[in-house]
Structure formats: C-alpha cells, structure tokens
Input
Amino acid sequence: MPQDSDTVATLLIIEDDPIQAMLLNHCLEKETYRTIFAKDGPSALTMMRENKPDLVLCDWIMPGMTGIEVCQKIKSNPDFASTIFILLTGKSSLEDQVFGLEAGADDFLNKPVEKNQLLARIHAGLRQKQLYKQLQTTNKELKAAQAQLIQTKKMSSLSKVVAGIAHEINNPISFIHGNIRHAQGYFKDLLALIELFRRTYPEPPEEVASFIEEIELEYITNDIPQLLDSMENGSERVRDIIKSLRTFAGLDESSMKSVSLQECIDNTLSLVEQQLQGDDIQIVRKYSDLPRIHCNFRDINQALMNIFTNAIDVIKDKKQTDSAFQGCIEIATTQPKPNVINISIMDNGNGVDAEIFEKIFDPFFTTKQVGDGMGLGLSVAYRIIQDHQGQLFCNSYPSVGAEFVISLPILVAD
Ligand SMILES: Nc1ncnc2c1ncn2[C@@H]1O[C@H](COP(=O)(O)OP(=O)(O)O)[C@@H](O)[C@H]1O
Ligand SMILES: [Mg+2]
Output
C-alpha cells in the first residue's frame, strides 16, 4: 500500500549550480519539508526511485541531461505520474513555457527565485498532488466496489445454476444408487438359481446348451458382480460431486458456521479435480490438526478456489514451454499462534514478476488474455479474507513458484 500523505512531503531539487542550490535550500530552511538534492539528471532519476519525492524543482539548463529531458523521463514513468514537476528557468518567453508544459511540467518559476513565490508554488503543487492522491484512492475504491458487485452477481447466478444442477442430478442418481444394491441382490439370486438348475440338470437339452454357449454364460457370471461394483463406485462419485457442489454453493445451510478448513480445502479441490488430473498436477497436503473456525465457509471456498485456479493456470503455462514439467501444488495448514490459522498454497510455476507484484491484488488487474482472466480472482479473495479480519499475502520466488498465504483469526461465534 502506498505511503500516505500525512507524512512530511519530500522535495527533490535538481540543480547543477551549487550556489543556486544553496539559495533554494536557504529559502526552504524554515519549512518542514524533507529536502534532497541532486546535481544532475541521472543522479536525480536514481534518487526518484529511492525517495519517491512528492515534488521536484528542476533547473532547465543543465549540462548533459536538460531539465526538459529529466521531466519527460519522470513523467513517462507511471510510478511518478502524480509527482509535481516545477521547472526553474530564466526563460520567460511564451514559446518556452508552452514547450515546457508539453514536456509534462506542472509549473514554472523564473530565476532569480523569490522566496514567497517559491513557497506559494510549492504549496499549490503539493495541494494538487494531494487532490490527485484523493482521486486515485476514490478511483481505487470505486473499482473495488464495482468488482465486488460483479463478483456478487456472478456468484449468486453461479449458486443458482449449481443449485439447479445439483437438484436435477440428485434425484436420478439417488434412484440409480439406491437400486444398484437391489440389483446386486437379484442378480446374485438369479445366478444361484442358474447354478442350481445346472447342478440338477447337468445334461441340458441341445437348445439350452447352445444358448448357454451363445451368451457366454461363464463370462457373464463372472462379470456381473464387477460391473455392478463399478456402477456403484461411479454413482458414489457422482454423489460426492453433488455434495461438493451443494457445500460450495452453501445450499440448505447458513453461510456462517463453524467449519473445518481442511474440509473447505478438500471440497474446493474436488471441484477442480478434473483439471488437476487432466494436467497431471500433483497435490501435496501438509495438514496440521486444527480447531474448527467460525466463518463464512462459502466465501472461504471461493477465495481458495480463486487461488487454486491461478496456480493451475501458471502450471499449465509452464507446461506449454516444457512438456516434461511436473506441476505441483503444496497446501500446508499451520497454527502459528493459538488464535491464528495459516493456509499456505504454494505452486511451482514461475513466481510473480517483480514489476507486477504490487498490482496482483488490484481489481481487474490481469496478465491473461481477454476471455481467460478478468483480474478479479485475487481482489475478491483479498476482500473475503479481509472481511474475516484476516490477511492474504503473496511470497514470490522467481522461477521457483508463488506462495499465497491466508492467515485467519479463530473467531468465536457471537
Ligand atoms: N500463482 C501465481 N503465480 C504467478 N502469478 C500469479 C499467480 N496468481 C496470480 N498471479 C498473477 O496475478 C494476476 C491476477 O490474478 P487474478 O486476480 O486471479 O486474475 P486473473 O486470474 O483473472 O488474471 C494474474 O493475471 C497473474 O498475473
Ligand atoms: Mg484468477
């Protein structure tokens, strides 16, 4: 998160002439700003990165890099877009001023600098910077609210679809599952009856004997129990999936309840099992024995799901460049303090690039193709964890992988 404005403002003065620099310093002596000096453009750019000043006062004419060039460099860097840039110049013609403004300068001060005018311009510049910051914050909040709205809408329609599917499949699969048991019993009796017939009439009539051969009675007798067993396994699997869907959508249950996080993780994983198997991704579980926690489990499932799908995405990407790559997601739960639970989800993708690290939790930030990602997954997960008074953060290990840690307090139901 960016530093906030209540702290002392930092001014960077770029001036090659030591006497001019001294004069400026003198004018600012009684002010509470933190003032730093650079004697040329290149060293100023380094100081910009290190100190992130709020306002820059820069001489126009300097050997090597001119003030205009410094200004263009600074203003073209999005990290410094809100930094106020004031050019110090002996040039007062209209053309010169237009030229300076087009290079991105916010204001001008003519040399020799007059103290009151300098201070007034600095105050005005800092006010402008403050407004810009407020605008940025409001914009961020608006985007977050919009993201939340879209996600809530998406989730409620997803829940409806899931509820519908679960309901539709639930009845037929219950018939199948319930009747397989009976079918197993009936077939057992029928096979016993055939066996009894064969023992009683070891020499069947010609017609019966050829029919027995035709239908491969021996084979059927051996195969039927296996066939019914695998049907039973299949129907149990479908029932498990429905159970996960119902749990995931929070059907029939209030969302706030005491849950085992391990169950949340396993339930959510079972929903992406198809993808995990399809992409041959190994799951390593390192669960500790944890107390149940009171939480909105539907939301927690959603947060876990968002993190898992990202991990699957990066592993899939890595596999495209190296087909022998074995993807792996390690999930560890720990209790670092008596009232805190941590869930760590670590993939072995490529980690998060340093340039985007600060942005991954921003709503609508994505590095994926249009249609593949909306950039909402992590921002929604962040908000969900925040709503639980917890924290979500990322540790990135370049070319080794990324770790997302959910840290949740153990809340007591009220
Ligand atoms: N496990 C990860 N490893 C590397 N980068 C990641 C990982 N998870 C997320 N990211 C980065 O964060 C971005 C934002 O993620 P997210 O908010 O889920 O949106 P989306 O998945 O739609 O892009 C991704 O586009 C990706 O660049
Ligand atoms: Mg995502």
